[in-house]
Amino acid sequence: MMVGALANWIIPDLGELSDSRKGLMVAVPVLGGALLRLVLGPLADHIGAKKTALIGLALTLVPLLMGWLWSDSYLEVLLVGILLGVAGASFAAALPLASRWYPPQYQGLVLGIAGAGNVGTALATSSAPGGVVLGLACARSASRWSRCSRPWLLVAFLAEDGLTQPAPKTLADYAAVLKIADTGWFCFFYAITFGGFVGLVSFLASSSMTSTR
User: Which of 79, 83, 136, 206 is the most exposed place for a label (fewest CB within 10 A)?
Assistant: First the structure.
């Protein structure tokens, strides 16, 4: 969500942008996260949620470095945004990492508790302290390894894959779910609730610049 949170500082450095280009810039990280979940989700089934989470945390460092030290044009910011989608896609590893430790009757509750972590998107938008956020996030992830890479270390040493690890699925198995009528309804409600929340929070900061002008 950092591109949306930093939009008020990024946009003036890119010159005059139309409202549609501003919207695309803010939306790209969210869209990237949605698409990359289609990669991390099956990957978690094949190599385990813990390994997938560690890969996702490591890859997130790449766009943080790029956004901090390299992105000076609109297209470069879009590329950084797409790659930041890895952070959003890590949701696909976090949910099985948590839920597979519990019997089926409790998995809905566990998924809800894990999903509540998305409140961080609102905190990111309301508390972003200017253009240093990417640099600070990068520094916390990369420099002073023993102190600032705690999320990766916590997952590496404390997290474990659940006891109910299912057998890996094929692409045909994943596609078969789309034939179930309830899948469409679940996707619809998910898009309205979670998708609406993420989209609204992401656009709040950038829309404030337009409104003040």
Answer: 136
Residues 55, 152, 140, 126, CA torsion sign: positive
Tokens 């890895």 found at:
86
Taking residue 136's Cβ as centre, other Cβ atoms within 10 Å add up to 13
**Alpha-carbon distance 60 to 37, whole Å?**
14
In which residue are the tokens 């809800």 written? 112
Cα-Cα-Cα-Cα torsion 172, 101, 55, 126, nearest 10 degrees, comes to 110
Burial of 104 (C-beta count, 10 Å sphere; 0-12/13-18/19+) = exposed
Domains and CATH numbers, the chain: 2-212 (1.20.1250)
**Higher per-residue pLDDT: 142 or 166:** 166
Nearest-10 Cα torsion for 69, 85, 58, 77: -10
Q: Is a pLDDT exceeding 70 seen at residue 77?
A: yes
Q: Model-level pTM?
A: 0.74
Dihedral (Cα; 95, 99, 100, 101), 10-degree rounding:
130
Averaged pLDDT for residues 75-101 = 87
